[in-house]
Amino acid sequence: METVDVRVLLAPAISFACSGLVFLMGRNVFWRRFWSLGAATLKLVVVMSMLPGALRGTTYVWRFIEFTPGISIAFRADALGMFFATVSSTLWLVTTVFAIGYMEPEHAKVRFFGFFALCVSTTVGVAFAENLLTLFVFYETLTICTYPLVIHEETPEALRAGRKYLAYTLSGGACILLGSALTYQVAGTLTLSKPGILPASADPRTLAILFTTLVAGFGVKAAIIPLHGWLPSAMVAPTPVSALLHAVAVVKVGAFGILRVVYNVFGVELLRRLGFTVPLAYLAAFTIIAASVAALFQDNLKRRLAYSTVSQLSYIVLGAALLTPAAACAAVAHIANQAFAKITMFFVAGSIQRTTGKTQIHELAGIGHEMPLTMAAFTVASLSFVGVPLFAGFITKWYLSLGALESGMWWFAIVMLASSLLNAAYWLPIVYLAFFKGPHGRGTGSGEARLLLLVPTLLCAAWVLVLGTTSDVPGMPFALARAAVEFVFKM
Amino acid sequence: MWWQWAHWLPLAVLVPLGFGVTTPAVAGGDGGRAWRWAVLGSALAAATTLALVVRVAREGPFSYAFGGWNPPYGIEFRFDEVGAFAFVVASLGMLAIVFSGRYAEHALDPARIPYFYTLLLLDIAGLIGFSVTGDLFNMYVFMEIISLSSYALVAVSGERTAEMAAFKYLVLGAVSSLLVLFGIGMVYGTTGTLNLADAARRLGGVGSAVPVAVAIALMAAGFMVKSALFPLHVWLPDAHAIAPSPVSAVLSGLVVKVGLLGTFRLYQVVYRTGIVDLAALDQLFLWLGAISIVMGAFFAIFQDDIKMMLAYSTISNIGYIVMGFGLASKFALIGAAVHIFNHAIIKSALFLAAGAIIHQTGYRRLSELRGAGRGMPLTAAALSVGAVSIVGIPPTAGFLCKWYIALGAFEAGRAAFGFALVFGALFIFVYYIRMVNAFYFQEPVHADVVHAGDPPLSMLVPVWVLAGLCLAMGLAGKIPLTFITPAISRLLAPIGG
Amino acid sequence: MKKALIIALLAVAAIPLLAAMASMPRFGSPEQPAYTHVASRYLQKGAEEAGADNVVTGVILNYRGFDTNGEVTVIFTACAATAAVLVTSGSRKKEKPGEATVPLSPVVGYVVRLLAPFIALFAFYVVLFGEVSPGGGFQGGTIFAALIIILSVVAGRNVAERVLPARVRPWLQIAGPLSFIAVGTLGAVLTGSYLGFPHARGLLATAMLMGIELGIGIGGATVFASIFWRLGDEP
Amino acid sequence: MTIEASRLFDVGLMTLLVLCALAVVRTKDLLAAAIIFSAYSLVMCLVWDHRGAPDVAMTEAAVGAGVTTVLFLLAIGKTVRREK
Amino acid sequence: MIGALWSNFDYAVSVVLFLIGLYCVIAKNNLIKKFMGLNIMETSVFAFIVAIGVVDRGSAPIMGPGARGPFVNPIPQALILTGIVVAVSTTALALSLIVRVWHQCGTIEADELRELE
Questions:
Q1: C234 touches E99 (CB < 8 A)
Q2: Is B65 helix (H, G, I), strand (E, B) or coil?
Q3: Radius of gyration of chain B (CA)
Q4: Chain B touched by A154 (CB under 8 Å)
């Protein structure tokens, strides 16, 4: 059931307006915080208010403006989009709180919060995009809006990272543009409201080119190896930026795009017949393992997080590529599972950096005694990544393995297992280091992080547990993921 | 209705022409009075052309026969959708003239100021005439008005480099005009008419295709020099970079389009006659367009001078449009035609904003302009909007062209050129990002840049009107696209259809 | 080497051009399209319709009058362009004008002064009789400009400038475009289209044609003289 | 004059034109080149008059051979007489 | 083709003059000389267009008592009148620029100017 509802437009518009207000009035600390927090809350309320309807199966649509003849900038909140939008608007609120605490000693805060809001606006725009062109519009805008955040430090290193980031993502954008144009040529439409728009009669070679360009385009932001190069370097950005954008918004937009391509552009049936997703699945599996191995050798905490992100994102890609309902559930759900766990970790890294000034893993010995709550949150996230039952990550791994068996490619279940082991190998030592290795000499005596940093961290950690335990409770996000999957598999 | 009054069409040319020729006499050496007179003239011209655009949107193309002689016996003005470029010319010209008020006071010899406005207005009059005329030789006359005034405008600052650039521009411009005139002569010799529509009819029955083909080649070559397609671009960077900024805006945004519009008119004449196979020309346009995109971007990367960079980017953008012509599919032609309009807006915004920055700070190199984003936030923001737009980031005006030409490339089955176009645009981004970095993210070299402050309103308003248009024309892309479509459909309609 | 290369390139370019020339309609043929299409009407009815025995003048001023409107604009553009390039507020009137720029024998000066009125008369003749004989506004104007140029060489700038006083010169320079706009507008009022001439061969039509011719003549003469002086002012 | 004679006259004029043009290109002395250019214009004048275009011929005489040459002379006077 | 060229001799001469002019523009270094070349090109194109108007045994298209046809085509003549004016305008501006360049750089040789840049 489709309902025309302005709230779909409102959700991105609120953060857009917020960014404008921040640019105008942001020199004043109060107004900057007021608008950032107010808009984040308002937006969460708006998105949440659509949630019951979305769970009932209502799809909200709003046609904003006819962009070119026949193609509008239009918004449509289907189950998949709602899922992504809910995740990102929840995290925006949390991250804003964290950022207010974290950014206090930094420069150029107006610019930071302004572009921060703009990024969230575009992320929700991607989530609600009704057609491929709208999606592309917001995808590119997101690229541009994140640039000032990535190079926030304005050091030569940051500028270099920024250039690298732009080079990668804009090339990706170019691929998507070409892919969209070709899609329009082949299908005559760009809508994402159907489970597949490409005609089965099209020339398989054209379809192959199409699949490659689109997946490569989105794969840049989804950081599939070998397109991942920008992500570790972009970690020079301030931690809230890394947290929201590089673990949640930017990279998830890429993964979300791949889901859209697989489910809404090609459609499951067509892809099953064509078999394009098999190489993609192998590539994803390779990324999962290789990035985990790379993470093992990182001593900088944020870089280890970055490689972990690369690895985790490919869960989503793998889930999409397996083309079974269970795997699809895993892929969609992992958007949330990974987001909350990863943002917890980033918050922890940021808290530690702000409180103690430490950024390297070997410096963390005994930090658990200083900051027990923070490190507890870290532990929760680590266990989630390892895939311990009752933690969010388990849901993904379970369904993904199921999907692998369902599709008859059982070896991907082994990949899951190997990934769990590797995750354990690079996260648990940190936990061990923090809690069980006493500080050599005296502790820093820094104590727990301040509340503005601590509360968001704990909230996210708690949510990881909630996600991990409520997968069968109706009305929780996982139900939404199921709804999305049912739509694309026409169940 | 008010817009149906027949005389709007000649008035569109005569108003800027009349105001232009009278400017020195009216001003009597007073620059301020010349400015007010010119602003009035260009505003009236914009209003007049607006009436034409309204009429063509409601009723389709219409004509005006001078002296009451029906074509082919007299000169005909024919206003079609592509002719709506006249409106862009008049409005951008008005903004450039408004902008010039304070700029000229500062940058030009006071004795030259009235002549400066005269030439700007005549340039506008010529451009409007060129876009609406339906007669080959009349087209040449207007082309010469445009060329002469443009040459002089480049040199008006009196700097040594400016005069040398103007001379280089003049020689190449004069040669290209002659090529066009030669072609016009051959078309006249074979068809016996100078009227475009009549020539299109009669070309089908000419005895030998050879003169027609050579005429097309000559005219296309001449127009491509005027449009600075690589490798015929040598005159452009100097001329556009050294001219005063409002002139650069007019030259880069409007005057280079003369060649493209001319090519379009040529297409309108020969496309449907079938006497000459245009495949070779299309092929040439495709390749030269692609090379232009890449080479323009390539040279721009090495420029430190901000206006030089913008000038090279014009070459790239001309490449887009020519490539669109070369693809010759419906989407590509629509994209190319719309980009003629959009590039005018974007490039004017960029040049005017750059001009405002140079005017306020006195520096023109990126390395010296570091921190300009802090010193003059509004101007630098407008420049950034323009930069984002010209690179074709959606949803700005520059994106439409990229999207449509990409669609057209697939439509024509030339996917490789779609790739060239889109990745060429990335190349362009490389140098615009340098500009943005310098303005916002790098340590200032000169302290006065940071304290420069935004320019006076008469400069800031035109800049922001244009920057706003860069965004609006992208978001409301449907309007120009649907507006231009009938012209392209008529061009591509099957013979006899 | 470079020259040889250029010559070779031009020789290559010559081939298609010559081929095109060879397949043009035969030179001088009365059957060629250029002669049979539009021109035949001009030749048959031109003298009647356009109001001038000299069909070329008829074409210039009437059938294709708007081209000439553009042409006079081009002349003025050249004037404004040279002004924009050459004029400076500092160097104006720096050197004292008035003396002949070149030392001349008195005989030459005397002859020029003697001939001047006749040349002026001839110029006017060419302007006014362009309708029935070769010539017209522009040719006459050029002859008049030549007279002024000779005068300023022989008798000095101040003598020559007296013919075209500096005070009204900006208006004289635009006499061409202005007369066109005036007559064209009058035509629009009378016949409904710009540059339309009422009833061929009428007195009014003749007066309008004359007005344009005079405008072109005065404008052209002033512009050429101004350009000459400006170029001469350069050190 | 018969057509053949007239034709011969044409060919002669044309040859003269080409020779004049070549001379303009080859002459190093700019002043001389300007004068030859003036002669070229006058020959062109003759051609056009012979072709039944007295209006054009007259204009070319006044403008091409007259004003243009004067302007060339003036410019040469202001700058340099010899081409390097 | 040679025969056709011979009958279209006027046109062929125009092409030759055009190319001579073009050579002068490209190959000559002196700016004034370049412009003489350009003027040659201009007149050659004018000659071509005037030649289009010629008719065998035609006389000037001036009507009136005693005039006898055939008359030559008046249109090319009208066009070329405009063309000549355009040409002289361009020349005037070009020479002004040349004088200014000489004034500022002390040379009007293209290669020397290029070195000055």
A1: yes
A2: strand
A3: 21
A4: yes
Mean pLDDT of chain C: 86
Nearest-angstrom CA–CA distance, E12 and C17: 8
User: pLDDT-derived band of residue B149, with 50, 70 and 90 as boundaries?
Assistant: very high
Say yes or no to pLDDT of C100 above 60. Answer: no
Which residues 199-238 of chain A have a CB within 8 Å of chain B?
209
Closest approach of E53 to chain C, Cα-based (Å) = 7
Interhelix angle A79-102/A451-469, nearest 10 degrees: 160
B393:A69 CB<8 A: no
Q: Is residue B344 part of a domain?
A: yes
**pTM for the complete prediction?**
0.93
For A302-354, write each residue's pLDDT tens digit: 888 889 889 988 999 999 998 888 888 889 988 888 888 889 988 888 888 88
Domain count of chain A?
1
The structural domains of chain D, with segments of one domain joined by +, span 24-84
Chains touching A by CB (3 or more pairs below 8 Å): B
How near does any CA of chain E get to the CA of D30, in Å? 7
Confirm or reject contact between C81 and chain B (CB < 8 A): yes
- Tell me how close the Cα of A118 comes to any Cα of chain B, in angstroms: 14
Contact C73 B17 (CB under 8 A): yes
**Chain B contact set for E45 (CB, 8 A):** 178, 181-182, 185
DSSP state of A235: G
Under a CB-based contact definition with an 8 Å cutoff, are residues A126 and A135 in contact?
yes
- Strand B62-65 and strand B76-79: the pairing is antiparallel
Asked if the Cβ–Cβ distance from B440 to A140 is below 8 Å, we say no
Residue appearing with tokens 């080409």: D18
User: pLDDT band for position E110 (50/70/90)?
Assistant: confident
Q: Is the Cα dihedral A188, A194, A196, A202 positive or negative?
A: negative
Residue to mutate among C151, C224, C230, with most D CBs inside 10 A, is C224
Does B358 fall in a domain?
A: yes
Contact B491, B333 (CB under 8 A): yes
Q: What was the ipTM of the complex prediction?
A: 0.91
What pLDDT is stored for residue A3 in this prediction? 86
- pLDDT given for residue B497 in this prediction: 40
pLDDT exceeds cutoff 80 at B217: yes
Domain assignments of chain C as residue spans, ordered by start: 54-233
Q: Hey, is the C-beta of C56 within 8 angstroms of any chain D C-beta? A: yes
Check: CB of residue B97 under 8 Å from CB of residue B35: yes
Q: Which two tokens stand for residue A298?
A: 């990182």
Q: What number is the average pLDDT over the span A45-66? A: 86
C190-220 pLDDT tens trace: 888 898 888 766 788 888 888 999 999 999 9
Find, in chain B, the residue whose alpha carbon is nearest to that of E45.
B182
Question: For domain E2-56+70-116, which architecture applies?
Answer: Orthogonal Bundle (1.10)
CB atoms within 10 A of CB A440: 8
What are the residue boundaries of the structural domains of chain E, listed by start?
Answer: 2-56+70-116
Given this model, what pLDDT does residue E39 score? 95
Please report, as a single letter, which amino acid is at residue C108.
V
Q: Which residues contact A373 (CB under 8 A, 6 or more apart)?
A: A448, A454, A457, A458
> Comparing A457-461, B296-300, C104-108, which segment has the lowest mean pLDDT?
C104-108
At A194, the pLDDT band (50, 70, 90 cuts) reads confident
* Residue B496 structural domain: 286-497
Nearest alpha-carbon partner for B270 in B332, B318, B328, B230:
B328
Q: How many domains does chain B have?
A: 1
Q: Please tell me the predicted confidence (pLDDT) of residue B344.
A: 94
**How far are the Cα atoms of A128, A321, A333, A488, B351 from residue A483, in angstroms, in the given order?**
16, 19, 11, 9, 52
CA B197 to chain centroid, in Å, comes to 24
Cα separation, A230 vs A479, whole angstroms: 34
